[in-house]
Amino acid sequence: RKEVEQDPGPFNVPEGATVAFNCTYSNSASQSFFWYRQDCRKEPKLLMSVYSSGNEDGRFTAQLNRASQYISLLIRDSKLSDSATYLCAVKRTPGSARQLTFGSGTQLTVLP
Amino acid sequence: DAGVIQSPRHEVTEMGQEVTLRCKPISGHNSLFWYRQTMMRGLELLIYFNNNVPIDDSGMPEDRFSAKMPNASFSTLKIQPSEPRDSAVYFCASSEGGAGSYEQYFGPGTRLTVT
């Protein structure tokens, strides 16, 4: 089992739709979770951190479910510009080690 | 503010040649990471430095790969000799280090093609 798993998609949704992605992690000691966005032929860019209480940034909502060991990303009122690959990242090791493990990404295409 | 800077952006070389990729992290960041991304294997961590010291190189595929960080503002990833299976996008990322945030910021990547 991979440490961090995502449904690769693709998710094809119409403009204005709400879409949600999940990312599961295998190590229950994992801490610090992130969602990154990667456009085609570009670098991953941090979209948002995921806090235990959940957090929202405009149309984007991230949540953490420690009991079931997954994080989620919800995009409301999706725009054409949201089309990208969304990567989750997990800091799996305790203490000061700073490595993140990335999922393989979920591809989203928002259709006009 | 300048982000992570990588050079070259594209590199095409023949099998057997030496390749050197360069990275300048964000000023003030103490941790630096080298990643490789391919369609098949996704984003893989190759090596991680903290305060210029290699902390985890378990992701370096084999002895043909080496990385250095001679100072806080510069790192290199070298492949010698290169092979076609090394073709990938190589990203450098940096983060604050110490007690700072674990968020990592990526450079634009070097697209390497080995023929």
Task: Provide a descriptive summary of the structure in words.
The complex is a heterodimer of chains A (112) and B (115). Chain A is mostly beta strands. Chain A has no helices and eleven strands. In chain A, strands 2, 4, 5, 9, 10 and 11 form a six-stranded mixed beta sheet that branches. In chain A, a hairpin with a 4-residue loop joins strand 7 and strand 8. Chain A is globular. Chain B has 115 residues and is mainly β. Chain B has no helices and eleven strands. In chain B, strands 2, 4, 5, 6, 9, 10 and 11 form a seven-stranded mixed beta sheet that branches. In chain B, strand 5 and strand 6 form a beta hairpin. Chain B is globular. The model of chain B has no long low-confidence stretch (mean pLDDT 94).
Summarize the structure.
With 112 residues, chain A is an all-beta fold. Chain A has no helices and 11 strands. Chain A is globular.
How many helical elements of chain B?
Answer: 0
Largest sheet of chain A: 6 strands, mixed
The portion of residues forming beta strands of chain B comes to: over 45%
Shape assignment of chain A = globular
Q: Write the element-wise H/E pattern of chain B from the N-terminal end onward.
A: EEEEEEEEEEE
Structural class of chain A, by secondary structure, is mainly beta
Number of strands of chain B: 11
Total of helices of chain A: 0
Q: Quick one: biggest sheet of chain B?
A: 7 strands, mixed
Encode the helix/strand succession of chain A as letters.
Answer: EEEEEEEEEEE
Unreliable spans of chain B are none
CA-CA gap between termini of chain A: 37 Å
Estimated share of beta-strand residues of chain A: over 45%
The overall average pLDDT of chain A, rounded, is 92
| Low-confidence blocks of residues of chain A | none
Oligomeric description of these chains: heterodimer
Average pLDDT reading of chain B: 94
Write down how many β-strands of chain A occur, each being a DSSP E stretch of 2 or more residues: 11
